[in-house]
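Structure tokens please, single chain.
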Amino acid sequence: MESSKSANRTKRSARGEQRSQSSIGPETISSEEISGWIIGRLPESWFEQSPTVTIDHDEILIIGRLPALDLGDEVDPVAKAAAETGRITRFREETREERMTIAREGQHHFGKVISWGAEIGDTRHIFTHLSIPVMTRLRQSERTVLDTLVDSGVARSRSDALAWCVKLVATNADEWLLKLRKAMESVETIRQQGPLA
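Here you go.
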């Protein structure tokens, strides 16, 4: 009886160690290193310039610009948008297998999911990307904002309304958010150069 209790304690302790180690996560890798690896790994023929690589805690999103289509001078805007969508769809199908290989390698290296998108002209499509639930606590005045958006038909649910609010802030505070991200990158660079690095 005593030995089974001791074995259970050992198992629980091992699980606790495992949990604490996994919460530490992989060694911090800079966004420049991730972007550099991705740009170096992609075939040069895919995009007309280096892709945009956006990185957060969970995901790496790669959006590349495809070469412009030659549709002539007087093309209907609807036909142009349809042609651009068709070209992005073709790119998606033709590169699927190789993109999946790169995504697997990247996830192994960086511990983040790799998602893809492409743009051409004024058209942009994101093929695969994460939609992650984010828990938050809101007071009544904040919930009222979300409920107003739901009641007015702007959003389908509180979750949808919160996503709408985040998009609105991102659109209207672009410049401020960019400055904030640059400041955070500077802090990270200084931290990496510090005496404990």
